[in-house]
Amino acid sequence: MRPTPCIPANRRQVVLALLGTALLPACGGGTDVAGVSSGGTGSYTSGVIVGLGSVIVNGIRYDDSAASVNFDGSASTAAALQLGMVVRIQGSALTPATVAGGLATATASSIACGSEWKGPVADIDTTAGTFTLLGQKVRVLATTVIEGTTFSTALNGLYVEVYGLLDPSDGSLQASRIELDDSPPDSLRLSGLVSGLTATTFQLGSATILYSSATEVPTTLANGLLVRVDLEPTANGSGQWIATRVRADAAAIELEDDDEADLEGFVTALTATGFVLNGIPVDASHIGLPTGLVEGDRVEVQGSALNGTVIASEIDIKTDDEVESQAFEFHGAISELTASSFVVRGYPIRYDTSFGIALTNGLLVEVKAELQLNGDLLATEIEIETEN
């Protein structure tokens, strides 16, 4: 059984550097202090959506009203973005929060989104909070958003689409969102680090991928490359999964010089100057690595971008306990108000009368809520807002 979400004391291990201009590469001007630039021209953020109205990722609230949105190579809209999806956002420079506990803000110009794995659920272990998909382990946390249901053995045999962060230390996927498919999909999906590469096959964890007939294969395909692979819905007679498309992760080429960068994910490799995160090299030489950092740690990195590398000014190791204490945040108008619940941004939220606010339909609010074991969102804070 997954633990009940709680709000623990801050147990983050933070390496923080107040970097002067002498320490920073000359990439267009601007000094990073704790990851918030004073002169950057843009921002790049990669992480899990933890709030809506517009989208909130890594403590930044991005206005998505004019952003181009791309789902797996196809044009979409901001309305399709949901809690728990993992996104990559290009946007304007950040405006720091003006009040304690507030969010930095920016305007998104483009948002890329896509699920990591798609396939049938097997081997559910509700005690450990895990299941397998095409033989690969998926880890479910208390803050994993499961659309329309809860985590139980009833999911066995159903087809799901999973958003989350890859952990290279064991090849697992830490799920941030799980969506159920009404029927078996036309194609399946896996992602991970390539290993055992031959002229026709490679491994993603325990799965053998036959890519010789794929219509798209990166010219840079090599062991250690982070890829996302679309697969035919059934394996061949040899138990190999037949790839129809193999794509290299594009995160590194999206970075632009002088971007304020904020990335969340698992460390895929340690390097002489830092590590690799989500396929992006991180240079930590100015601040040093957190004590004990190893491949497979989940971290958030803040810094600035230069030549496809993030120059780190802050590195934050995140434990499962901290991730599971994450509250979700909503900004918008109340609808479908009852004595115990209301809807904001399409999400039903339960509440009690202890907030001392006269709620009405149409009232603009900021709501923080925790995800309960039964799948409900329970409001922990409600404040009236004057604008969306």
Please write out the topology.
Layout: E1 13-16, E2 32-33, E3 36-37, E4 42-52, E5 55-57, E6 60-63, E7 68-71, E8 74-76, E9 86-92, E10 104-113, E11 117-125, E12 130-133, E13 136-146, E14 159-167, E15 172-180, E16 188-193, E17 201-204, E18 207-210, E19 226-231, E20 241-248, H1 251-254, E21 259-270, E22 274-277, E23 280-283, E24 298-306, E25 309-317, H2 320-324, E26 328-333, E27 341-344, E28 347-350, E29 364-371, E30 377-384
Parallel strand pairs: 4-21, 4-26, 6-10, 7-10, 13-15, 18-20, 23-25, 28-30
Antiparallel strand pairs: 1-25, 2-3, 4-5, 4-9, 5-6, 7-8, 9-10, 11-12, 11-14, 12-13, 14-15, 16-19, 17-18, 19-20, 21-22, 21-24, 22-23, 24-25, 26-29, 27-28, 29-30
List how many beta strands DSSP finds: 30
**Strand portion:** over 45%
Query: What's the tally of helices?
Result: 2
Q: What gross morphology would you assign?
A: globular
Given as residue ranges, the uncertain stretches (5+ residues, pLDDT < 50) are: 1-39
Distance between the termini: 37 Å
Structural class: mainly beta
